[in-house]
Amino acid sequence: MFITLxxxxxxxxxxxxxxxxxxxxxxxxxxxxxxxxxxxxxxIVFLLIWFIIALSMSQKNMDIIKISSWxxxxxxxxxxxxxxxxxxxxxxxxxxxxxxxLYGLRYFLTQTSQxxxxx
Length: 119
Prior knowledge:
Helix content is about 70%, strand content about 0%. It has helices at about 5-30, 35-60, 65-85, 90-100, 105-110. The model has no long low-confidence stretch (mean pLDDT about 75). The protein is flat and about 40 Å long. The protein has 5 helices and no strands.
């Protein structure tokens, strides 16, 4: 049940992987603006890197599911706990680490369709 040193290292590496993508998305994230194309691409690259890491770790028979669960589950728990208990020193870092890299995906959610029916 306890997390081994090897798993702690993997979780720390996941956090370190998130930080550059959080910095790229930070300006839009902080002000609540619609992300730029560059920020959207950085979020896609972040997800692709996660996918590649998951593939390589699964090939090596490592516990990618457990590590990912600890990382994303821990982030969700810290975010909810910080938000509902109004504990800013937990909530803000948790959102920056876990939601920040994915903020660029909002670009695709706010785009209107340019498709028109032919006459």
